[in-house]
Amino acid sequence: MSTQQVLNIPSVASQATIEQWLKGLEQTTELAFFRRVGGRHGFDVTSRWASTLENLNKTLNDPAKQATPANFSNLRLITLKIITSVNHYYSIDSIKSGTISLIPNIVNYPHLEKTFSSVFPRKLDDNTGLPLTPGHFITAIEKMGDGIAVIYSYVILRKIQGRSKLRSNQYPEQYFNTVFIPNDLSRIEYRIDKSLGKRSSEKAMTNLRTKFLELLTELKIGLHVDTINFYKAISNIYHDKQYGRLVQVNFLDPNGDEDAVLRCRTDPSYDARYREVVSKTQNGTPHSLNLEVSGVAVRLDSKVANENISNEIGFEPSKTDWSTNKFCGDFYYTQAADHQVHYRVINDLLTRAK
Q1: What is the distance between the alpha carbons of residues 67 and 348, in angstroms, rounded to a whole number?
Q2: pTM over 0.90
Q3: Contacts of 254 (CB under 8 A, 6+ apart)
């Protein structure tokens, strides 16, 4: 979804609803993204959350402003955009066959987890009623314009270091993860909040996929799907010099334990395609290395409103998956703004994976 395509539909919201959505927006911590996108819609965004939220509250309570792009409907949609797609790990299932025509019925699913749905998009913590029950809980189902987003609250338990075992040494933490199906019903995108970290995201991805398949079973929607393997996309991106800049390249010896990483994110002209890893003998004689590209991170640079920004896409499979299984089942995608059409970006990656 691009919020550039949002219709300016005036809406009136209660003060409680406005405050709930403003809190949810603040909890995303994506002030820079909101400044670029919300500012284009006429919202008064500063460099600090406190003053930005104060400005937004005034705007949303001004009846005259609700007939402009700076209205509650657009703020709500931008917030949903951030929650569901701005900074995530992705895994994708291609839909091959089944009762595909029933997929739109998902939007009518009534059994949301009230603990989370009643306060969405605000997140809970242990001081505001977040349960000590880990897992995914279906929280909201939204029509995003370009598809359906099924949003889950994901609860994990963090350990408190040094706490006596006689007392609780865990506290809950909430994230939002999303399952997205585009309007053409061609695929299922599983999106995990990237702030979870690589290792935790892998566990979350498995659980999210299981939970969504349980939902399909409950709704009697039978689908035959194939999980996309992005293994070929890694070498494709590395060799395509027209596709962004490589800010990181991982090299591995498929038959040994040697590795190397080229990385630089501060130099706006850096591209690791034009670097090489060289081995030399003690007397300085170079010799070849049995290193192959096993992972990449590419930045797609743009200028938006006279500001240079970059979206980043990365593939980082484990050594076993890459060298033994020839498999890469996920990637990450971070967005600085909504200037690139999300659907086309994903389609391009799917093409590179073939």
Answers
A1: 37
A2: yes
A3: 290, 292, 322, 323
- The structure tokens listed for 320 are 């076993």
Name the residue type at position 110: P
Tokens of 230: 């992005």
Phi-psi region of 171 (alpha: psi -120 to 50; beta: other; left: phi over 0): beta
Instruction: Please classify residue 267 by burial: count the beta carbons closer than 10 Å to its beta carbon, then call 0-12 exposed, 13-18 middle and 19+ buried.
Output: exposed
DSSP 272: G
Per-residue model confidence as pLDDT tens digits over 101-120:
999 999 999 999 999 999 99
pLDDT digits (tens, 9 = 90+) for 231-284: 999 999 999 999 999 999 999 998 888 999 999 999 999 999 999 898 888 888
Look at the block and give the residue holding tokens 């170079």. Answer: 286
How far is 173 from 134, CA to CA, in rounded Å? 9
Pair 238, 273: CB distance under 8 Å: yes
Bridge partner residues of 136 (DSSP) = 154
Where do we find the tokens 């909040």? Answer: 193
Backbone angles phi, psi at 106, to 5 degrees: -55, -35
Tokens 């350990």 sit at which residue?
159
**276 residue type, one letter:** E
DSSP 127: T
Contact 315, 298 (CB under 8 A): no
Q: How far apart are the first and last CA of the chain?
A: 24
Query: In the prediction, which pLDDT does 322 show?
Result: 95
Ramachandran bin of 42, using left for φ above 0, alpha for ψ from -120 to 50, beta for the remaining angles: left
Q: What is d(CA 304, CA 344) in angstroms, rounded to the nearest whole number?
A: 18
Lowest pLDDT segment from 36-50, 121-135, 228-242, 270-284:
270-284
